[in-house]
Design goal:
Low-confidence stretches: none
Order of helices and strands: EEEEEEEEEEE
Strand content: over 45%
Shape: globular
Structural class: mainly beta
Amino acid sequence: QVQLVESGGGLVQPGGSLRLSCATSGFEFTLHDMYWYRQAPGKQRELVAQVTTAESYTYRDSVKGRFTITRDNAERKVYLQMNSLEPEDTAVYFCNAKGARTWNARNDYWGQGTQVTVSS
């Protein structure tokens, strides 16, 4: 079965850092684009970062220069390095995989989420 399991969330002070990890299994990792989303209470889910199968990178404007998404195809893992964290980054962070080919484009897999809280 398909699994995406996030870890690394927690409580951190403003200006601090966290690294989130997403361990995956049950699908062709190298044929899927990988994403980090987040959702704060009372707000819409929003895209944070993307890394494609070709290892191109995209970030929302508010995290550019602070967050870095990477993938390790050998380990089937995706990471989100978060630096200079701000209270506005507080949210549940979700790992997501989407098929990157026409024949697997239906694939849309989600993890359970990990809580990130940035507070003094």
